[in-house]
Design brief:
The complex is a heterodimer of chains A (324) and B (349). Helices cover 34% and strands 2% of the residues of chain A. Chain A has a two-stranded antiparallel ribbon with strand order 1-2. Chain A has a two-stranded antiparallel sheet with strand order 3-4. In chain A, α2 packs antiparallel against α5. In chain A, 31% of the residues are buried. A two-stranded parallel ribbon of chain B has the order 1-2. The N and C termini of chain B lie far apart (62 Å). Classes of the chains: A mainly alpha (324), B mainly alpha (349).
Amino acid sequence: MTLAGLNTINLSQLNTFQQFILFLLIILGSAIWVSIAVVHVRRKAFERRFKSIVEEERQKRRTRNRSNSRRSSFPKIGNHSKPEVDGIVVRGSVIEPEKDLGEDANGNVHVPSREIGLGKQRADDSNGTLNVPSRRTSRSSPAVEEFARQGSLGEGLHAGSVDAESREPRPSGEPLSINTGVARRITFAAPTSPTRRREHGRVFTMQGIGARQNLLNHPIKTPPPIYDDPPNLSEGAGLTGSTTRHGVYGFMLNGFIGRNSQFSSLTLAERERLGGVEYKAVTVLAFIVPLYFVLWQLFGCIGLGWYVANNRSDATKVNAENPW
Amino acid sequence: MNAKVAFQTSDYMLITMSLMILAGNTCYPIFLRLIIWTLFKILPAQSERWHDWKVTLRFLLDHPRRCYTNLFPSRHTWWLLATLICLNGTDWAAFEILNIGNPTITSLPHGARTLDGLFQAFAVRSGGFYVVPIANLRIGLLILYVIMMYISVYPVVITMRNSNVYEERSLGIYADDPQAQAQEQDPANADHPNFLHRLKRTMTHNSRTGTESRGYFVRQQLRGQLAHDLWWIVLAVLFITITETSQFDRDPVDYSVFNVLFEVVSGYGCVGISVGLPNVAYSFCGGWHKFSKLILCAVMIRGRHRGLPVAIDRAVLLPGEYLAAAEEEDAQIRLDRTMTTIARSTTGA
């Protein structure tokens, strides 16, 4: 079953049933077979998840209609099912100009103190409100205008342009403003440290590389993100006018693709769409991989069997043996 | 596993089996990608009915590691193919060269000899068949086979680990954020646009952080994997030779330490070729005591798990919100680190 081909007895002397059992075990242990199982399990998981997403959407629509009145005091940070918006410690403080700082009515903002290189200029308006230029997409421009109306923001505020990908000019007074080109920032509900414990030697734990159960870096331990979920989002308004990136997958994706196919800076809606595409891809694979597996075996065995029967009929049965 | 010595001269059989060995194992990601790419090309472009499938296939080709463990992006697949050709080519050349003057091989006709060499090269990576009695090959070739069996699984595994979506998370090392870097370098180099200056910046940056290049990640993976594997083999050989002492005393040539090592590496790499014993039709380990066989079983099971993806490979995790959270967090971490490094280097430099 391990597909190592060492044998301790003369295989030709086994009877057919034993050979058949061996054959079955070899098939079951094959790497491709195992990956078929993985693909099918994931496909089922996707389907279950979509059912629950549809439920969530329905619930959200119900609560959204109810909570619309609360919206004016929290212009930036969406997701109103998480009431702890005020107390959020936002990571990534270096990227001052584009950060979503939760701000309640008093202008209290919790900002972590690791201000590296940018120093003092961030929030120094005379009135102490935040100088936060927004480079959001068109979806959030109503929110930005609301914000501008609220506080007395000075020259630093650039209203969100329709074009999501435009790099905003640096606000005045910033010594070093690094435009990272990020269209949106996703904040997190709880601070996390950048490096959790490194994996130390696993030699004697009898587990494979990365196979630990208590992996501290496991994605499931990531704190859930808070997506910006602007109130006036409608499908049409969001999609028209913003430059489309990655439209080749059938929908607009205004995030970034990093190394190793990591997508970042996507909204919740885009994540869902991405999930849909992944689900379809998994379905295609769930069809192709078993087909590949079966057809190679079948044609190979038939070909060899025919060859042996015709040319080398004195050899033992070939059909019970296979290369992997 | 099977002695195909009887089929030394049957070309069709050897070619078919070579193809099957490749398709089932090392060449599987390559063949799979080829099939998907062909499907993508033959679907009509503008048709409404197939548009959905075309989009899906495009996604599968561009971001395969989000969906499946054994399908790699284009660059990785080409690299895998190159490695395959390189390793098998070495095996094949060594077979022909190192067996000059070896009567077992020179008794075969020329055409059969070359084909046998090629087949043996394929088989030694994962097939476990042998068309020539292994014990009669030259010793240098056998050592080469040991090395090849040990690293047989590495090309696919390293590629799998290196293309893992959460690779940085699994290693605890983060690459630099490319957008942030580009931004930082542009204004600084506005007045020094020449190549040398940019190169100097990149290299000093590299040496300071050391986390940027893909090569670095590959080296980390290799190091982890190599260190991880060796202990099992060493301990297994030790215990097996201790158990087989009586047989060694009786017949040192057939029960030599090297033969034991060959067997253990063959089992660990899940290859299955064996030097065998004279006059019997089974592998060398058939002549061992029960305890040694048990040890070999443990080695085989452990060796089978070498080719598994990391636990936090996105293609094996069930879908959920936490995956999106992890990606965003990774991007955030990467950005933070890049900013820190840039700031540190600008203030320091």
